[in-house]
Amino acid sequence: MENTGMRPSNIERWLDQNLLSVQKPGRYTGGELNQVVKDWADIPFRVALAFPEIYELGMSNLGLAILYEILNGQPDVLAERVYSPWPDMEQLMRAAQVPLYSLETKHPIANFDILALSLPYEGLYTNTLNLLDLSDIPLLVSDRGRADAVVIAGGHSAFNPEPMADFIDAFVIGEGEDVILEIVEVVRAWRDGSGGRSELYRRLATIWGVYVPALYQPHYTEDGTLDHVEALVSEAKLPVIKRIVSKLPPPVTNFIVPTIDIVHNRIPIEIMRGCTRGCRFCQAGMITRPVRERPVEEIVDAIEAALDATGFEEVGLLSLSSSDYDEILALVKAVSDRFGDRRLNIGLPSLRIESFSVELMDLLKGKSQRGGFTLAPEAATERMREIINKPVSTPQLLETAEGIYQHGWHTIKLYFMIGHPSETIEDVQAIADLCKQVLKVGRRIVGRRARVNAGVSTFVPKPHTPFQWVPCDTLEQIEAKQRLLQRELRGPGLKLNWTDPLETMHEAWLSRGDRRLGQVIYHAWQRGAKFDGWGEHFNYQAWMEAFDYVGLDPTFYTHRERPVDETLPWDHIDAAVHKRFLTEDYLWSLEGRTRVDCRERCFACGILPKFAELRRQNPGETWECPEVKSPSRKTPIETIPLIPA
After folding, report:
1. CA pair distance 212, 206, nearest whole angstrom
2. What contacts 430, CB < 8 A, 6 or more positions away?
3. What is the pLDDT of residues 185-215, one digit of tens each?
4. How many CB atoms lie within 10 A of CB 115?
5. Which of 109, 164, 231, 642 can bridge 236 by disulfide, Cβ–Cβ 3.0-4.6 Å?
6. Nearest of 517, 610, 612, 514 to residue 571 by alpha carbon
7. Quick one: the chain helix, strand, coil %, rounded to 5?
């Protein structure tokens, strides 16, 4: 790709003159330990990896770290990083007409072949437009030409790509470890030829897991709901099936060491991907199926290599449900044996209340930070926990809390959500009552040192979950519930954190929206919306003005219960879990029926038949899928391809 814009030497000179004028200059300098710097002139293909947030958040993103290692492991590809500048830096850059640049070599982002964006949550959408604008890349797909960077996006929010369809050339639906190199090869071959951007889009659409919005046209009914999505060319598949890796590759170990403090200053090691618990509100648990685990020895060896490469003193053993990892006790013992003399802190997020053990707590003692122990009951009454399919009894929760206090923790953090389907004000009162019960347990064991911190977020029904049809609470309902909790959860030993209801509405519009939301995002950004996840920067008025300008009603996306037979904006994106399974699970929730962990019993959600090869590559799995064994199946399981046709 031909170089354009300001030269790196000019950018470096400008930085020398201006960095002391901004907060945290270390956000913009690069030069960290373990960064990869290749000779720009000698490498024919270049990828900019972007997280459209500040450095402190972007550097904590494991997905970008994985892609950084994969791409830079190719001798003929380089990958460099870019994050969103804070408003003080942006103001200086715009005044001097300095384009957004990469941290490694200070090349303008517009000079890269691919701009690959990580979009794990919807609050990054206006930042994405701002990043494109600062990079001198046309915001709209329709305005880009052959010389412009190809804009790729992935992450959990890509499972409903429609609100950002006007701005993204192609979305990766699902996991990126394998598909990123296939995308590089397609874009490289296209750049070596002479075809236009439409030819590139046709080629990208042939890759399993890649969705190219320009090749699809949504059609709406008179009442504003989606009628259907039309594929405009033969290469455009319907549906677009998510990409998945059959076996997790070895973990990243050569992490870049930041020059300033970041959100997670630690070694992140993913021990397991996927979840089998089936919480009905949890999008991640549905879209990351099936479960794949890394061997204990591989994890421990990766920790040692990462410690030697970085000098970090904390390790996060990451998964959606750490205590469901089959060998969790063996893993913690192995880490303790290997690193017992290194004063290593071990973080185990997402520990299950029902599977937590005193033995695991004993093993963690002295190996984890003592600031607080986190449990996520999500709801405070057993009726509500049955509705959301998290059937934990209150006595079980109190017994676990007692064990935590007995083993040296003084603070328990409890995470709840308000706004679940069928929730009453009595269910909200129960949150306060349960927190007081837990505090009472703590006071009995550790006295006045006992603390209970309650984090109460507001439920947003997400795509590809059993609750995707239900409405959100109204602002009035949310505010009434929060006032109750604020009144009840006060006094010594109690602390409450809650989510701004306006920010909840923003998340709901964007996660549940259709392609028409693109114009709302664009006009909100034009009115100053950016850093929407930061309370001091969230501009609710800009969003309301944008909805009004475009002529859309925001409550259409938030407060409307959707019939189960309605065509949803994301139905053409296949997360490999049957819609009929989600429908059945939703109907079960209305009856308060629960499902056991699907390691104990398979409910035929659809994931295994679509990816049957996974079972052959992971013979350790002993549980069977009824769909696989069904005598009525017309297609033998052995003939189902790993890569969908």
Report:
1. 10
2. 380, 381, 384
3. 999 999 999 999 999 999 999 999 999 999 9
4. 26
5. 231
6. 514
7. 40, 15, 45
Give the DSSP H or E segment for 437.
helix 425-446
Work out the end-to-end distance of the chain between its first and last CA atoms, rounded to an integer number of angstroms: 32
| Residue type for position 230 | E
Residue 504 has pLDDT above 70, yes or no: yes
Q: At what angle do helices 197-205 and 179-192 cross, to 10 degrees?
A: 150
For the record, the structure tokens of 279 come out as 């919480």
Identify the burial level of 411 via C-beta atoms within 10 angstroms of its C-beta, where 0-12 means exposed, 13-18 middle and 19 or more buried. Answer: buried
- Close Cβ partners of 573 (under 8 Å, ≥ 6 residues apart): 159, 160, 161, 173, 211, 239, 240, 242, 463, 464
Q: How far apart are CA 125 and CA 157, in angstroms?
A: 10
- The pLDDT score that the predictor gives to residue 622 is 42
Q: Can you count the helices (H) and strands (E) in the chain? A: 23, 19
One-letter amino acid of 220: Y
Q: Pull the structure tokens for residue 117.
A: 């964006």
DSSP assigned state of 349: -
* Residues of the chain above pLDDT 70, percent: 91
Amino acid identity for residue 271 in this structure: I
**What is d(CA 383, CA 600) in angstroms, rounded to the nearest whole number?**
23
Q: Name residues whose C-beta falls within 8 Å of residue 382's C-beta, 6 or more positions apart in sequence.
A: 391, 393, 394
What's the CA gap between 393 and 391, in Å, rounded? 6
What is the spatial distance between Cα 168 and Cα 151, in angstroms, rounded to a whole number?
6
Distance CA 533, CA 309 (A): 33
**What is residue 370's predicted lDDT score, i.e. its pLDDT?**
54
Which residue carries 């200086």 as its tokens? 92
**Strand arrangement, sheet containing 373-378:** 373-378, 411-418, 451-458, 494-498
Nearby residues of 373 by Cβ (< 8 Å), 6 or more positions away = 404, 409, 411, 412, 413
Instruction: Specify the pTM.
Output: 0.94
- Contact criterion met (CB below 8 Å) for 304 and 315: no
Query: Residues 83, 55: contact at Cβ < 8 Å?
Result: yes
Q: At what angle do helices 125-134 and 517-526 cross, to 10 degrees?
A: 60
Cβ density class 55-89: b for 16+ within 10 Å, e for less: bbbbbbbbbbbbbbbbbbeeeebbbbbbbbbbeeb
Q: How far apart are CA 450 and CA 447, in angstroms?
A: 6
The domains located in the chain, with CATH, are 8-239 (3.40.50.280), 266-366 (3.30.750.210), 370-499 (3.30.750.200), 575-639 (no CATH)
Cβ-based neighbours of 297, under 8 Å, separated by 6 or more: 334
Bridge partners of 268, per DSSP, are 316
DSSP, collapsed to helix, strand or coil, labels residue 639 as: helix
Q: What is the mean pLDDT of residues 336-345?
A: 85
Q: Are 61 and 122 in contact (CB under 8 A)?
A: no
